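Form 12-C: Joint structure prediction
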Amino acid sequence: MSVKWVPLLLVIQLSCYFSSGRCGKVLVWPTEYSHWINIKTILDELIQRGHEVTVLTSAASVLINPNMASAIKFEVYPTSFNKEEIEISFMSWINEWTRKSKESPWKHFPEIQKIFWEYSDYLERLCKDVVYNKKLMMKLQESRFDVILADAVGPCGELLAQIFKIPFLYSIRFTTGYKYEKYSGGLLAPPSYVPVVMSELSDQMTFMERIKNMIYTLYFDFWFQTFNEKKWDQFYSEVLGKPTTLSETMGKAEIWLIRTYWDFDFPRPFLPHFDFVGGLHCKPARPLPKEMEEFVQSSGKHGIVVFTLGSMVRNITEEKARMIASALAQIPQKVLWRFDGKKPDTLGSNTRLYKWLPQNDLLGHPKTKAFITHGGTNGIYEAIYHGIPLVGIPLFADQPDNIAHMKTKGAAVSLNIDTMTSTDLLNALKTVINDPFYKENAMRLSAIHHDQPVKPLDRAVFWIEFIMRHKGAKHLRPASHDLTWYQYYSLDVIGFLLACVAIVTFVIIKCCLFSYKKLFKRGKKKKRE
Amino acid sequence: MSVKWVPLLLVIQLSCYFSSGRCGKVLVWPTEYSHWINIKTILDELIQRGHEVTVLTSAASVLINPNMASAIKFEVYPTSFNKEEIEISFMSWINEWTRKSKESPWKHFPEIQKIFWEYSDYLERLCKDVVYNKKLMMKLQESRFDVILADAVGPCGELLAQIFKIPFLYSIRFTTGYKYEKYSGGLLAPPSYVPVVMSELSDQMTFMERIKNMIYTLYFDFWFQTFNEKKWDQFYSEVLGKPTTLSETMGKAEIWLIRTYWDFDFPRPFLPHFDFVGGLHCKPARPLPKEMEEFVQSSGKHGIVVFTLGSMVRNITEEKARMIASALAQIPQKVLWRFDGKKPDTLGSNTRLYKWLPQNDLLGHPKTKAFITHGGTNGIYEAIYHGIPLVGIPLFADQPDNIAHMKTKGAAVSLNIDTMTSTDLLNALKTVINDPFYKENAMRLSAIHHDQPVKPLDRAVFWIEFIMRHKGAKHLRPASHDLTWYQYYSLDVIGFLLACVAIVTFVIIKCCLFSYKKLFKRGKKKKRE
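Section 2 - Result
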């Protein structure tokens, strides 16, 4: 092997050493659940490279545990919320969304907006708990952070960055209708081939699907509000002491790290300050716990099926569990099912229930044949990483969309949790396990995922370090940020040019008419003479 | 230093070993002069990594020398052209373009189209010399290449790829108006903030500049034809035995490697199958020849100025040379001037003339203070790489644009070769050498250039290898390629939705009128009763 790559890598490896002789200081404004799991991978890597990472978290956080064994520092701020209250809110939002997402979009979307606005109020209270906490703000100010890393679905990070006058960047899966990516980030999403999130469409659309995509785009652009913007705009203007908006403040992000890549997402236009780092949390499988490994090995040539509905859904109805268990009992594979409810009486001897599963380690096990999933982005990416075909049972948020993507790419069969029968689940499992089409496609996506010039995690960390080294990434910022919407679409220019054409046409017609009249009159005069 | 990067790199390093146990076979359709110099860097790297590279070149090529000491294979095909004839044609096109480019665009552009069409005819003849050479085509077919690398400003590579049924990719600086990048590649170029090539505009435009940019965009999109497309379309349809066009065939490219990056170019939207690899040919300076090093060292603390107008311009008028020499004589720096004409009598003792200069080695020399350049992209990138401020004397093609970019970025002063005086040149040199603003900006661009996750050359080679490994890069191809222009802009969808709105409005109005009439009649009837 030639070693000439090494010097470049040495530079990257040592990049945290600034001219001042110190590593960087990163402040993190995180969100909960799977978003935290994803962003934590980046933080661990930053720590590995010698940076100092401080996570701002409320005393009532559900998943962010300040006592975890980690070099990450936690700045825990007091809040009027308590943990149980937040957990109950999240569970009720999820249940509501899951229930509503089976209804027609026009009944469903206003309900989702209601959920989002409750979530927006919760976030605003948290943000105020930080910003109006003078002692904390003084401490943060004095810490002189180099950069803020925030999740764009939880506003506040951008406000802190403006207050402390430091650059910030986002990690983000999506905002409804790509609204903030578009209106704050400048991302383009032509509705003719970029399916809007929650449409469950692919990039290859029929005429009727393109109509649906256009209507969804218009709806999300002009009607749906993810956050109660009026309140946020007022809050941000008040704190910053100048009239501003949430959207404008978010637009100051140096980089947008999108948690997808072209293995999973459909190719679409983007800008230099966007990078697609989907699957950055994926890693090779580690050995399983002894008991679990024995159970997996006992599956013999048939292999195993992994089944989980994610970190947010702990339980399903007893009836549903019975139906699922009876389907699982009929396959020759062994099944590992993350399930916290009452053991169904139809449970086969091939199925074991677990309160928690080492999902990535199981998906990376050579015996794994299929993954039954709700379709969260983290889980989907672990399946892509290890090349495992899916049976998708999407519940809410981007999950129906995620499964639709994997179905289009030939690596998944989709089921509806409300209407599916035991036979449907059985058939779906048999299909993805026995039809080589699904495994081949899963392996193709895996090959694409692994064959990138730089691993997604290294790219994410690179951009954070870049911002720290250069105090921003202004050279990547498109000038479209400085244009009004009518300038951006060249409407003023088109208007001016059309006016010019109209004036010239008018003058020409007038001249022609005048000349014609003159000639006509002269002709008449001559005739009279 | 942590060594965990190494395994990933091992994979990249060994990537040329396919499952069949052999490295890749690359066929190259090159163009002449600076384009060849640039693409050759990629070929050398491919060779270094164990691939087999075959360059298709005519017996009359100007710069491509099949006898050069290199592991590159040359497949030399006979042509009815001779080398002198081609060289004379190029020189006359350049002189014509340089002369015309000082005139108003509306006189200048049609002349450039004339030049392009002559160039187009020359390329078509070369392409026919290959495609209609049965013995050669049979040999190429039997060689079973894995990929074709072509320069998009010299059509034919895409035709060969279609005939041999192998994937291909482009290396490209630009086509006039970004026409082929847009209409074949699907690239977006909103005229509100993406200055069209040859406009000499930046991304920050005034209203009048945006009008200019819009008019240029419309002109290049709907009027200007880089190649005589009618002839190419007919030729391609004939060879492929089905109705097709040059633009459609070019649209099948797997990847477009653009020879710029965000150090030099303005941020703009792009697509996943575009990568920006500007400056891939740059490398650290090697030691200078002994005599040259001595001359450079004799400059003391003042340092040196490097002056060249590129590989295509060998000479300027005697009068112009006298004027330039007298300006150079007045600076305290030593000057190395690439000049092939009669020695000007005003030449100072500080200036030495050379028929050829090791440009990159000189720009990377610690004594170098400034670079006087015509503004070719290769030279500009060497200056960026080494952080050297520029005095630009642009002549033709993208050179005025390139210098305008560097001027906007604060690293260059621009001069007009026709109107500049000795004092202008002297002042420009004094400015870029003595005003720290220029050096600082040049160093900033250099820092951006060097701080990329992967070096441009490695990215270029990565994508070529990727295409060979995966027989294409279909996962990066946007679905917009399968849409007609009116589908792409959603005009059919908008038309349908407007028609629906119109029909609904019409029906509502009719219903209202009908109800009103009914009520009105009933009212009248009642009154009568």
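Section 3 - Comments
The first helix of chain B runs from residue 6 to 13. The CA atoms of residues 126 and 187 of chain B lie 29 Å apart.
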